[in-house]
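FW: tagging you since you asked about this chain on Friday. Here's the raw sequence from the shared folder, copied in full. Didn't touch anything.
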Amino acid sequence: MKKTLIAGCVLALCSTSAMADTWRFAAGADLWRAQGDGHVQRQSADYDHNYNWSGYLQLEHGIILLPNAKFEVTDLSTSGGAFDNELTAYDLSLYYRLFNNPLFQIDLGLTGRRYDGDFKTTHSSYSDEVLMAYAGTEVRLPGTGASLFGDARVHDSDHYDYRIGGAYQFSSVPVKVRAGWRDAQVDVKKVDQGVDGWFVGAEFSF
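HL: got it, structure written out here
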């Protein structure tokens, strides 16, 4: 009886996955013209515009009980004059797709984020970890490859990271181009900084 029940559950999960046909792997990268503000160890500067970057790997599937996953690395570095703060954020987001139809999708989950920083101005390094709520959405324009998207990671009102923008999915190749605005606020240990600006990027999926 137990073996039959287990086999039935496995078959149900596999059947659901096959019927949904939603297995998807994606890799993407963004170039971000970022402007910093705030301070590190009570030091601030007249910030320069930096060209920061981010990249991610994403796995989505049709297995109902298991979350989808996205791993992302983001350069949050800021500089200005003698001020130089090199900061990288590593995100692992686990989320469920609550709604998915030809018009829109909505994702909800959690993000575990680790910060690794090197404040070269005072030759000191630092690190921290935070747990953030994760939400994402995409609204598709019927009959076109165009869409509007947004995602957000929120720890509290002083610590968040969000993106909004537009995208276009080519019909002949599995490539999506996108552009938008990103705003990240970091409040950990002796770091209280913001980075925001326009970004452009592309995603390859298969």
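FW: Confidence is low (pLDDT under 50) at residues 1-20.
HL: agreed, and The longest strand covers residues 83-100.
FW: great, closing this out.
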